[in-house]
Amino acid sequence: MSRPRIVIVGAGFAGYRTARTLSRLTRHQADITLLNPTDYFLYLPLLPQVAAGILEPRRVTVSLSGSLPHVRLVLGEADGIDLDEHTVHYTGPEGGAGTLSFDRLVLAAGSVNKLLPVPGVAEHAHGFRGLPEALYLRDHVTRQVELAAAADDREECAARCTFVVVGAGYTGTEVAAHGAMYTDAQVRKHPMRTGMRPRWMLLDVAPRVLPEMDERLSRTADRVLRQRGVDVRMGTSVKEATHDGVVLTDGTSVDTRTLVWCVGVRPDPLVESLGLPVERGRLLVDPHLQVPGRPELFACGDVAAVPDLTQPGQFTPMTAQHAWRHGKVCAQNVAASLGIGERRPYSHRDLGFVVDLGGAKAAANPLGLPMSGPAAGAVTRGYHLAAMPGNRVRVAADWLLDAVLPRQAVQLGLVRSWSVPLESSSPEVARVAGRPERAAKQTAKTGTTATTATTATTGKDSGTEPAKNQPGGEPAKNQPGGEPAKNQPGGEPAKNQPGGERAKKQSGAEPAKNQPGGEPAKNQPGGEPAKNQPHPPRAAAGKPRRAGEGAGTGPARGSGKARKTSRASGGGRAAAPSGPTRSAGPPHDPGPEPPANQPPPGPDIAPGPVKRTDGRRAEGDS
Q1: What is the residue-wise DSSP string for 302-371?
Q2: 83: left (phi over 0), alpha (psi -120 to 50) or beta
Q3: Fewest C-beta in 10 Å: which of 82, 451, 480, 509?
């Protein structure tokens, strides 16, 4: 007789604890499979310290295969569950599809960023739910402070060193507290030329900081934040977001390049695809964490609406403390359904909360005892060390080094803006260019149009571009680094230009009359030279560029026609990002300055569209 098959979807607090406890209880009497997009368990409460440069990224991760030796790990994202056939369909990290069969299924897929219908937020804000987002924020904040320090213009300096955090809950409060300390340390070493200092803003529609926690914790956190210069604004949120600022609900306009979205979370959209009863997106379960009418299906963590037996009529909140304890009870009940042990209902009383505010400051109420200052800081860090399932010595070592050595404020540039969109069904995984299958699965789960990369159907190297309206997306046309318009260097050569498409009834692509080397088209970098004047030869348009250089592609070698970059239409697919076009010829003038109120293209914010001045349309204009 074959052993029962148990499949666990998700390796967050609930899924990881379920797998670890089941492995101990079953003792090789069942085949346990853990399906997760990453090969690690992320200790989410310490993520703000990663963004602030206190902890290295691997300190807050625990290897799944190393800590769960008797559990089979399958890398992938669940995109469909057939309860009648007892199968889970998933997509692997390289786009391949797979299927897992089960006798018992534990759904612990976790949560994703909660979006609100605020114009511009999805395009210009970033969440804080996964390791890629923390790494991006660390690099981005470091870059903005460095650019602000070198800026001569006070308005630009003020915008770059203003950081807006929306959501004064657990995550947003810690991000603002640690972020203020991090940027102050940077400016202390390298003061800004304009004499300004970084400014952090914490916004929330709630009446106080940490509204879901004890009021004494709220007062302590609010006091520490204001002492560090954080602009705490309660009863205020974002009304509209743009690439160079936000408009608040009180009518105030704030120039900023950084918008961190920490307004809360929502259950993974996979739950809604099951067609089972839900409560605010969470799957309804009984006190034994089992779905009524489905004896083979269990759910725990953020995706489960678990009745709170200590408060009849309510459900347990979506916190790591509950998810961790859900996992243990769920594992015991799954084992009991296989004849191992006895069932037990979930009942838990809060043991208190801890909020790390950076340095020696913290707010805590262990067992209901309110604490603040260094004592609360010691309790907070002691709790985290005890709760972490691994890496305790490394975390303690990083804390010790941070106390005696200055932090390394460097930007590595490993995570780009477009790879961590706010609207994502998998915030724990950075978006990778060139994977259309992943976007299709994401679209099916979230009900929104996802964007990924597509390559040229010719099989030749071609530049690509990120999706429009995405952070770090398509640069403005006719801008350096953007898609070159027709008659632009690196774009489709103008007719009658050397290397371009031959004019009708012409033989051999004759250059323009009276122009040595041909008359350059208008709107080209360097401007239009006077007629009948000798013009220095430009780079040969027929030379192929390196792969990934430029958003447009020049003509292939030995061909007079320009290669076309393939685009998907109507499928929500766009091309991957690319850098500015490199010329094979001698250096030349980069061209005119961007128009007024138009920021130069950069790695984080895509400038808006720029209209041509000659009345013609650029390639790709609609």
Answers
A1: GGEE-B-TTSTT-B--S-HHHHHHHHHHHHHHHHHHTTSS------------EEE-STT-EEE-GGG--E
A2: alpha
A3: 82
